TrEMBL record:
Catalytic activity, EC: 3.4.13.21
Family affiliation: Belongs to the peptidase S51 family.
Record's keyword annotation contains Protease: yes
Identification of the protein by name: Dipeptidase PepE
Length: 242
């Protein structure tokens, strides 16, 4: 499989996708017809226009899957697919409703390049359980696309030692996940991404990632770190620590 999994599409001080634009251009086929999946936000047309404005100057033809009466047919006619960020529950519910969930899985496993950002990166994991989002709708299942066999947490935030907020930190929430599930979680800080090409996977971007595994201290993974071993993960869900 050929995957580019971005933590975020918008970066402070940058335009949409600007912080990763060179990587995105190199990832997508030249003059590609890109199927964009806008279902994570409510205004599909405005969202698609935003992506189109960012990528068409680079020679990428952006087509929202909602613009075709048959979204699966639009996917089949495309050279790559991009699933954008927003609310992961709303996104996953729409993927099931339109039939795109199974269609994307099949197409990407057959070699279609897949780009995700934020919620779209959440979709690449086996389950929605490590999303940061509020469940504003109820999808038929928490099962996502399973393009990689481990979990990814986009927008990973480090604990603020000066904060007076008493709610759970992101690290505490991911630790709770590992108490109930034996599956690695790759925390992607904003400005970082994961590149998967066949059996190789590497952390890239401007910031290090953080890897959480059961029974071990979190690991810092600088940009350039090879994490191909994660592709051989055998996830164990609903396997609580006893």
């Amino acid at each position: 499989m050929n995957l580019l999994l971005l933590s975020n599409s918008t970066q402070y001080g940058c335009g949409y996708l600007e912080h990763a634009l060179d990587t995105v251009r190199a990832f997508l086929p030249p003059e590609a017809r890109l199927a964009f999946v806008p279902y994570a936000l409510a205004d599909y047309a405005a969202y698609t226009t935003r992506v189109r404005d960012a990528l068409e100057p680079a020679g990428i033809s952006v087509r929202g899957v909602h613009e075709n009466a048959d979204p699966v047919a639009e996917l089949a006619a495309s050279d790559a697919v991009f699933i954008g960020g927003g609310n992961s529950f709303r996104l996953l519910s729409a993927l099931y409703r339109t039939g795109l969930r199974d269609a994307v899985i099949e197409a990407v496993r057959d070699g279609l390049p897949y780009m995700g950002a934020s919620a779209g990166t959440n979709m690449a994991s086996p389950t929605l359980r490590t999303t940061n989002d509020m469940p504003i709708v109820q999808p038929p299942s928490f099962e996502t696309l399973g393009l990689v066999p481990f979990q990814i947490n986009p927008h990973y935030l480090d604990p603020d030692p000066d904060s007076t907020h008493k709610g759970e930190t992101r690290e505490e929430r991911l630790t709770e996940f590992l108490e109930e599930n034996d599956v690695p979680v790759l925390g992607l800080r904003e400005g970082s991404w994961l590149r998967v090409n066949g059996r190789q996977a590497r952390v890239q971007g401007a910031r290090p990632a953080r890897l959480f595994t059961r029974g071990a201290q979190p690991q810092e993974l600088p940009a350039g770190t090879d994490v191909s071993h994660l592709l051989t993960t055998a996830p164990r869900f609903d396997a609580p620590v006893r």
